[in-house]
Amino acid sequence: MHESHFYPMISILTVWGLIILFILQPGIAHDGAVAGAKLFVHALLPYLLPYIILTQWLLKMPGNPKETPKWRRYIKAYVLGSFGGFPVGAVTVTEMLKNGELTKKQSSFLLAACHAPGPMFIIGFVGTELFGNVSNGWKLLIAIHIANLLFFILTILFMAKDNESESVQIRPHKPSSTLPLLDAIKESSSVIILVATTVIFFSSLGNVLSTVTTSAFTVDMGIAKTFALALFEMTSGVQSATEHFYHDAIFPFLIAAIISMNGLSIHMQVFVIAKAGNISMIPYVLGRVWSILFVPIIFYLAY
């Protein structure tokens, strides 16, 4: 079969296979979707929405990219993107590309470096509710940012040789909005809808696949459910890990690994946002491998 026909056929078969699974397991799919919706409302929305709106508002303020040193644009991207939670980094970098503050090459590397869970999520949800210890939440947050900053420094060193500094495309000037806050709220709503959709869908999918796996093979339900949910949806994964491994010594480091892995839900959010700016995803993939390797190690040393 020709390659151009092979991949579409695989996609079609995969979609129909998932549709059949959802039809055969409607109750489990429903439970997964409900769990994903609850996690989104209680663990993500309160921490993510205010920061996305404020970030969008700040990015819409007028400025002149030509007069801003390159290093200051990098710092701006990191501070706004890395402290806002997933997928604020992608939103920030894409918006800065649209504003003419970054080149395509700079955007692709900063997309990878400016990617971290928000402090409110790690300290408030993971530290307080999952670890039951705020200080351990701080330690995990520090471990994430140490790994990110190391990657960020490598990124800056790599881009120091970047000859594209003059190829930044300055967009035609648009009249400043008289209501930038409303514009920020409007654009933030599309990001929130994207996050909610992916979280609920992948939570449902992970629930169904983990149940099918444990039915077909001799696999511990806790392990299968945690692995499947962590693979598809990070927040559901850490919730499952808490339910099944809370009293194990490995629990804090398992949470660190799941958060570093992010899950397909977050990767899909970043992909959709970055695609709007035609930003390369290769550095982003390398950045995720870097985080998976180093965040649990740094957290272990600080724990």
From TrEMBL:
Transmembrane residue ranges: 6-24, 36-58, 78-97, 109-128, 140-160, 181-202, 249-273, 285-302
Keywords from the named record: Membrane, Transmembrane, Transmembrane helix
Superkingdom classification of source: Bacteria
Keyword Membrane: yes
Protein name (record): Sporulation integral membrane protein YlbJ
Species of the source: Sporosarcina soli
